[in-house]
């Protein structure tokens, strides 16, 4: 089979670009530890209200300017709904769902998780700037999806 010289050039450029792209993704994922939010722990979605720590959702201080925020998502709300966090605090989020798949995205941050029933998702974020942060469900979860939100006040 005969290939034109410019076809060979474009195949080499395309192949090289693909190898470069995959190398960058590989280094980012494995060497730098950039991985998706964890969901290695499981929970019975029918017994979320009876299982610690989800039986008492809320913000708990666990260290010097370090907090754990336990949240439960259900159609069409997050519990707790209003959270007060001090500026500069590192917050470890633990979130699960009682019913269907929900999203968990904090506007103007890189916090973004898919919350599935039966799994406990966790992610950590440091709030360096004071202000109001909106938690949104970014996965369609039913007829009231558009009103599913919560608010974090950082002061």
From TrEMBL:
Its main location: other. The keyword Metal-binding applies. Residues 49-155 form the Cytochrome oxidase subunit II copper A binding domain. Pfam families: COX2. This is Cytochrome aa3 subunit 2. The lineage of its organism: Bacteria, Bacillati, Bacillota, Bacilli, Bacillales. It comes from Sutcliffiella tianshenii. It is found in: Cell envelope. InterPro entries: Ba3_CcO_II_C, CcO_II-like_C, Copper_CuA, Cupredoxin, NosZ/Cyto_c_oxidase_sub2. Subunits I and II form the functional core of the enzyme complex. Electrons originating in cytochrome c are transferred via heme a and Cu(A) to the binuclear center formed by heme a3 and Cu(B). It catalyses: 4 Fe(II)-[cytochrome c] + O2 + 8 H(+)(in) = 4 Fe(III)-[cytochrome c] + 2 H2O + 4 H(+)(out). Keywords: Copper, Metal-binding.
